[in-house]
Amino acid sequence: GVNQQKVERVLLKAVRFLVLAALFTPLVYTESTLFPFVVGKVIYLQVVVGLAAGLYLMLVLANPEWRPRSSILLKTLIAYIVILFIASATGVDFSRSFWSNFERMTGWFALLHYFLLFVIAASVFPDKTSRVKILKFALIASVGVAFTALYSLIKPGFLFQTGSLSKLAGSLGNSIYLGNYMLANLFLAGLLYFENISKSWKAAVIAIALIDFFVFISAETRGAMLGFLITAAIAILFTLFVAKNKKVRLGILGFVLAASIIVGFFQINRNESWVQKIPGVRRLVNMSFTGGTMATRFIAWNIAVEAWKERPVFGWGPENFYYAFNKYYNPKSLEFSYYETWFDRAHNVVFDHLVFGGTFGLLAYLAIYAVVFGSLFKRWRGGGITYAQLILAAGFFAAAFVQKLTVFDDASSYLIFFVGLAYAQTLLAEPREKTAVGKIMPPRGLSSGAYLFFSLIIIMFTLTLVYTGSVRTFNTSKKLLSALKASMSGLQAAIPAYEEALAMGTAYVKDVEQDYLRKAVELVQNSTADGQTINRALEMAYRAGQNTIKTHPRDIYGFLLLGQLNHLLSYYDPKYIDEAEWAYSKAAELSPKRQQIYYAWGKLRLARRDFAGAIELFQKALDFNRNIADSYWFLGLAQYTNGDKKSALASFEGAIKRNYQFKSPLETALVGNTYFDLGGLEDAVKYYELSLNQSGTGEVYFNAAKVYAALGNRVKAREYGERALSASPEDQRAEIQKFLRML
Question: How far is Cα 743 from Cα 741, in angstroms, rounded to an integer?
Fold first, then answer.
């Protein structure tokens, strides 16, 4: 029969190993996948935790003593996970809620793995002796991440870093994530220091904390710095309140006074060059809550409130802020760039949960913090934990909450947050000090044969789930990156590579379909391939477009891409014009005030010579927000094409006044043509010269020559006329020669 004690011992070691291995997730970087800082990390964690979960079930079967210990924290987290699943099921796009996309990979499926890590870690490292290992390995991983950041100072370009101290990102790929991760580990370092560890380990903890603190300061993450300062302030005030020793109170007051003087000194001298050279300090003294990215976040937060009003109970579902943002899109967003118009997060954990899970989702999330803070305080009052553990554990969660008010979670922040929860669970649950295998052996109800049978089922289920949910996803990301690389060699190379990626059939196929749609339109427009290749590419794209809007019928980006594809197809067959019109109209239904939709739609109408229809669409985009240069430009283009040059000039001037960025010499020359046609010769010359500085064409040289002639500058007129003659095709030279003879 099966020796269950021996099996239990092996399983426990294996599960503990996998839990500790999961702590190294932030170090994973996969160059072979799309989003190398995201996909590899999440897949690694899912595989490790998935395997750990299977073995943990077998461990609990072997000895039920290893089951999770009941606590209010565990119950709160279970409620949170269940509520988010209900929100996913009742939301607007279950597939996106469950799986997310390659760029984020923070759907419910991934969240379940972080929760399982919490359950397993707290169960197999339940006491003072074993839980120390979690903190030790977490800190070892953190110093590894720190070195991946600092190494760029020696070798610029390492992991795409610039080698600048203020732009450190390391294996996390983002300085914001790095700052948040390092701050969390500083609290874990404090918790480890006050555990029962050797002097050598205490020295190691201090060294690691100093390295992590240096990287934390250098990352200059606004949210993390605020989290650190606010948490420190709360801890000081709390200590001042509970401290009974008069000397301690005086010492705290003295520290607060000294800190206030230092802060005031730096604030007064914030514009001095020496202050601007101090990492961290320069970020704090220049911190603004109104300009830059904060302005767009205020817009997103207002949208979140409007979206919550529509679906107040369970919200739109995890990962579906994207749909809410599109529906309630604020045209002011485009004032900050096109990039700022595609939000899939509110960049604030409260507003994100308000949309993700509605009232229930937000309350469930806030309950986690309430339970942690309340339970820690109660445990401290009862003598179960020390004051240092109370302050550092509570500080860990307080800082986490504050920094999440300006940024969203990624793989590293989710990991460290749930590791912190696992540690808190060991502090809060009833002690279980005897963890040696075999010392606690309650009666088992399973025979050896039954245990073996159930274990085989668990193994098969675990391996199937890990493969289908994680390994295939990883392979799909690799195929998509290969397809992207192949597309650089042209349409012929791209088609088979994308066919292979599309055939993977995972839940992430939408990412492949949308990427191929975008690439196909771009490649076909610039392709010299034969007709058969182009037809094959377009047929594939059309199928991909139909699939993506069928699977995700609220995704306006899919409708935009489909509209662009049908616009392109209409040059081969006019029947696709109506399909393009339909695609753009559907996009406009889903996001009624998004200017990009009307720009693309208006270009379609210009192409079909429906000038009045184009003007109507561009005017609508302009009316949404009269501060957007592109709206004036496109309206002017339609007016010029329609022959209304006076109105066109007014629109062009409106675009230029708002700092319109010309996309090509042809656009600059068009403004020159408009001035020329309306008699504004001096202005016409100015824009012709700008166009010629970018690229000289025969037509622009000839137009410029005619303007110089009208202004009486025969020397310039002849010079530009001769240049026009040499730069123009044969059939246009007769007119230019006639012009030159008349000078």
Answer: 6
CB pairs under 8 A, 24+ apart, for 685-692?
685/711, 690/662, 691/665, 691/666, 692/665
pLDDT (average), residues 628-649: 97
Query: Which of 294, 313, 395, 429 lies closest to 361, judged by CA?
Result: 313
Residues 291 and 300: their CA atoms lie apart, in Å, by 14
Count of residues for the chain?
A: 743
Q: Is the pLDDT of residue 443 over 50?
A: no
Tokens of 685: 């010359």
| 473 and 508 Cβ atoms separated by less than 8 Å | yes
Query: Mean pLDDT over residues 696-718, rounded?
Result: 90
**What tokens does 629 get?**
């240069």
Tokens representing residue 376 in the block: 């820690």
Residues 6 or more apart in contact with residue 95 via CB below 8 angstroms: 507, 510, 551, 552
What's the CA gap between 649 and 646, in Å, rounded?
5
Q: Which of 461, 363, 352, 467 is nearest to 410 (CA)?
A: 352
Tally the C-alpha atoms within 13 A of residue 458's C-alpha that lie toward its C-beta: 19
51, 466 contact by CB (below 8 A): yes
Interacting residues of 489 by C-beta distance below 8 A, sequence separation 6+: none
**For residues 718 and 413, what is the distance between their CA atoms, to the nearest angstrom?**
67
Q: What is the pLDDT of residues 554-578, one digit of tens each?
A: 999 999 999 999 999 998 888 899 9
- The DSSP code for 573 is -
